[in-house]
Amino acid sequence: MLRLRQAVSNIPTYHPPLAGREGLRLDFNENTVGCSPKVLARLRNLGPEDLARYPEREPIESTVAAFLGVSRDELLLTNGVDEAIHLLCQAYLNQGDEALIVVPTYSMYRIYMTAAGAEVISVPVEKDFQFPANDLRAKITSRTRLIAIANPNNPTGTLAPADDLLTIARSAPQAAILIDEAYYEFCGQTLLPRRRDSPNIFITRTFSKAYGLAGLRVGVLIGDRNQMSAIRRVSSPYNINAVALACLPEALSDQSYIESYVREVLQSRETLESALKDYGIPFWPSRANFILARIGTTASEAKAFVESMRREGILVRDRSADHGCEGCVRFTLGPRKHTNRLLTALATTLEELSLAPGVSRS
């Protein structure tokens, strides 16, 4: 009888609620208006030969490396950040090793760690979802081989201080330290200039958020050149499709588009925070393109809120299943016009469900 590896049998199921996403998409932290017009122009100019050839990753990696100010041998383009996580797990985790995550956080860390046969150790966040630097260091043992930290964190939007991250890296020289900077453009803090302080540090970036290229699946993994050489051995040479490779330089070249979009998102973040304060709804200050708010005290209240918002044409994400997030909903932020639609639907839904102290009851 054909049997799965035990580690695969133990993988938690992850079903992102992607089906039936009709409405304003404020549920998956995507760019809500789309990519640069330069990317669309490049797409229109692709010819049949562009699709018939195997994709050549290296020239575009040189372009991305120059943009980020790193050497090409310190960088690998990946099929989204998910592949980067998977490659780190394949390269550094053996059956029975320990891997550390801070919870709540991005679900795929646990899934890839478990698939590699590691024992996943969860370290709860501190009060108000603050980064648990001391508790995380206390969990490091001789068996620790990988520590994954989203910074800013998802779904909380909180940011870990750079010095804390470096201290953790120095405390676990035998472990790969992943600093996932998927939301870097919205916070401006990066460990990239200090990555060489510890050769076990790896940094990821994505083009799925600010750049609006989630459908093309492009990410970047950056690390010590000797370690990256080993990681390339477990990576497919054709992991990035030709369309994504053709479009990425155009996306990088249009920084004015990215800066304009980020500026609008930050303004929307302030606007939504102000509205939540007025409604008396608890939320956590965010450094990303989303805000986590406690809409109710139970998972059922959060579910009812999400369903009501969907009827108003707005998609938001129920995060009640995450550690410490019962009753919480996450709102992705976009430009002002999308925030205005969100606020209109928010007022209607809160009044309908009688969930906010600041909303009049009918």
Chart the SSEs and their pairings.
Blueprint: H1 6-9, E1 24-25, H2 37-44, H3 48-52, H4 58-68, E2 75-78, H5 80-92, E3 98-103, H6 107-115, E4 119-124, H7 133-138, E5 144-150, H8 162-171, E6 176-180, E7 201-206, E8 219-223, H9 225-232, H10 242-253, H11 255-279, E9 283-284, E10 290-294, H12 299-311, E11 314-315, E12 317-318, E13 328-332, H13 336-353
Parallel strand pairs: 1-11, 3-4, 3-5, 5-6, 6-7
Antiparallel strand pairs: 2-8, 7-8, 9-10, 10-13, 12-13
Task: Describe this protein's structure.
The chain has 362 residues and is an alpha/beta fold. The protein folds into two domains: 19-30 and 256-353, Aspartate Aminotransferase, domain 1 (Alpha-Beta Complex), CATH 3.90.1150; 37-253, 3-Layer(aba) Sandwich (Aspartate Aminotransferase, domain 2). The protein has helices at residues 6-9, 37-44, 48-52, 58-68, 80-92, 107-115, 133-138, 162-171, 225-232, 242-253, 255-279, 299-311, 336-353; strands at 24-25, 75-78, 98-103, 119-124, 144-150, 176-180, 201-206, 219-223, 283-284, 290-294, 314-315, 317-318, 328-332. It has a seven-stranded mixed beta sheet with strand order 2-8-7-6-5-3-4, sandwiched between helices. Helix 8 (162-171) links the parallel strand 5 (144-150) and strand 6. The longest helix has 25 residues, at 255-279. The protein starts with 5 loop residues before the first helix and ends in a 9-residue tail after the last helix.
